[in-house]
Amino acid sequence: MNASVSREALDARDRPARLTVGVVGAGRVGPALAASLQLAGHRPVAVSGVSDASVRRAAALLPDVPLVTPAEVLARAELVLLTVPDDTLPGLVEGLAETGAVRPGQLLVHTSGRYGTQVLDPALRAGALPLALHPAMTFTGSSVDVQRLAGCSFGVTAPEELRLAAEALVIEMGGEPEWIAEESRPLYHAALALGSNHLVTLVAQSMDLLRQAGVGAPDRMLGPLLGAALDNALRSGDAALTGPVARGDAGTVSAHIRELRAHAPQTVAGYLAMARATADRALDHGLLKPESAEALLGVLSDGGAANGTNGPGAPGPGEKR
């Protein structure tokens, strides 16, 4: 099913019937998905959560939906969202199946990026219908998440006979289904983590350093720059690479590393790793010329260690220590 299919394009027979919906794990994801399904005409009937934050999220996004045990969620709902941490999911599924909580014909949906449907095999043996629907989105735990689902891609894995139903549910939530094979789920999830989770770390580190440099509003300074860089990268890929690494400015990179060692040594390893990866990609795509790369790679290999020689790590021409 093409990801560009609209809600209106779904044939009525491919739409899931209006379902009662339950949520096991009221973290940031589950209540938002259930609220989105409610907008599509489904009916949330039960939610489970342990922490005070979970209870507050459930109350805010799913008002008047009772808070019950996981087993009771499965007893009340035809469609159950298992929105728990990845490492918790296998044990939860096994426990629910072993205690007889899973009912034949029940749609059991997990939202883990790491797993496909095999993790739901204990529930499948109990007669459940397994779906893996992972929203490629970061969640805040607030109502804004429901709005962000519009146009959000979902990594979809399901048995062939449930494929249309899985994709229909995604489209009803405003999302765009993208089929991911079972064996590709770990690689798919690693790619998303590399692009989104690490981005937050890089941006936070950059803001910290700008504050140390005396910038009063680092978010305002970075916003337009990072927005343009992201847009350029999505449009042009490696051709969007700019900066001293892509240019082969070894002296500048050496100066960066010395400053980071002096003011934020915890960032040096990350800087070096990303600079090496950037240099490799720039070389592969012809942006960094081999003759310019030698000194740069020497600095990166040396770790930018400042010393009294003119070798790697020493100041470049016209550069002060």
UniProtKB/TrEMBL annotation:
InterPro entries: 6-PGluconate_DH-like_C_sf (IPR008927), DUF2520 (IPR018931), NAD(P)-bd_dom_sf (IPR036291), OxRdtase/DH_put_Rossmann_dom (IPR019665), TM1727-like_C_sf (IPR037108). Residues 300-321 are annotated as: Disordered. Gene3D superfamilies: NAD(P)-binding Rossmann-like Domain, ProC-like, C-terminal domain. It comes from the Bacteria. Residues 15-135 form the Putative oxidoreductase/dehydrogenase Rossmann-like domain. Residues 152-278 form the DUF2520 domain. It holds the Pfam family DUF2520. This is DUF2520 domain-containing protein. It comes from Streptomyces pratensis (strain ATCC 33331 / IAF-45CD).
